[in-house]
User: Which sequence fits this backbone?
């Protein structure tokens, strides 16, 4: 089996290539603005629903969930603030000499900071949770704690639907995105002329519908600490794993290869689960659906025995693509 580390590294490298990154930004930023507008419109009625559901939950659970959400918010802010501080300190020294190094730096530092702050919070979980749940939140009335939890719950729901819309758009226009990646990495490889039946469209719509249905049905459980995180991880992994694999295979696999590769359920689930964890990392989360698409694409190419082009060849091809875009 192909090296997972090499596949992840190759996927990250591709994600920060300008021809690929441009497509990511052109897709992700407009969708983010659309969901910000939708959130502005539906925020108040959704807040009423969230607050009503939380009103039926015992205060001890609301308090525990509030502590978890506050710790998550502290973690996200710590990652962003420390990233901004480190960047401000070293940018004048190193960034002028960097070409693509800045993108590697951004992704690498964000991941390291996310892991480091997560470890620090988990290591001091008892102390921090007690300080928030047993001291800070006890001083506040139930209504204040409930409304705060409802606001964060609103954010979870709207963010989940943003990821869903990004997944659907990428599923629909995946060919242009993947062909750019293929042209850079595997210029000598020609995809099969005859497209196989993977039922990608049916599976993508089915999984999207189940994502919405399960989000609605499990909505009350999102106020229970730890359970809400596990639900989000499962729903995102469920969304990514099957449709993304089938959509990629439809473009680049023969029927025999598709039948063989779909037996690797553990690998596919592992890639989807890892990607779903990245949805929690600030900034990087906007790129997650594209990242899982790239990982599965490179994994399929590796399993097919297709070797990538050399670094010099990739550099030359990328320069050609950038030059053609500038004309």
Assistant:
């Amino acid at each position: 089996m192909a090296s997972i580390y090499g596949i992840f590294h190759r996927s990250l490298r591709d994600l920060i290539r300008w021809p690929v990154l441009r497509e990511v930004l052109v897709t992700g930023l407009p969708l983010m603005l659309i969901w910000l507008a939708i959130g502005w419109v539906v925020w108040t009625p959704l807040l009423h629903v969230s607050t009503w559901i939380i009103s039926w939950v015992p205060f001890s659970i609301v308090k525990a969930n509030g502590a978890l959400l506050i710790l998550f918010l502290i973690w996200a802010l710590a990652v962003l603030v420390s990233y901004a501080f480190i960047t401000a300190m070293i940018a004048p020294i190193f960034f002028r000499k960097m070409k693509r190094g800045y993108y590697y730096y951004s992704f690498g530092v964000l991941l390291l900071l996310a892991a480091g702050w997560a470890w620090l919070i988990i290591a001091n979980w008892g102390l921090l949770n007690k300080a928030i749940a047993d001291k800070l939140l006890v001083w506040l009335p139930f209504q204040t704690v409930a409304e705060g939890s409802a606001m964060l719950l609103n954010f979870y729901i709207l963010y989940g639907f943003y990821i869903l819309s990004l997944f659907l758009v990428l599923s629909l226009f995946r060919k242009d995105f993947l062909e750019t990646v293929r042209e850079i990495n595997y210029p000598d490889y020609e995809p099969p002329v005859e497209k196989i039946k993977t039922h990608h469209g049916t599976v993508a719509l089915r999984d999207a519908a189940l994502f919405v249905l399960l989000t609605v049905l499990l909505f009350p459980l999102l106020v229970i600490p730890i359970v809400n995180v596990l639900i989000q991880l499962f729903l995102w992994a469920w969304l990514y794993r099957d449709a993304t694999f089938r959509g990629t295979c439809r473009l680049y696999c023969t029927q025999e290869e598709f039948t063989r590769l779909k037996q690797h359920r553990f690998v596919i689930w592992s890639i989807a689960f890892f990607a779903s964890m990245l949805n929690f990392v600030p900034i990087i989360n906007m790129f997650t659906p594209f990242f899982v698409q790239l990982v599965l694409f490179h994994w399929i190419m590796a399993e097919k025995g297709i070797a990538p082009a050399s670094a010099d060849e990739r550099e030359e091809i990328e320069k050609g693509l950038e030059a053609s875009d500038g004309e």
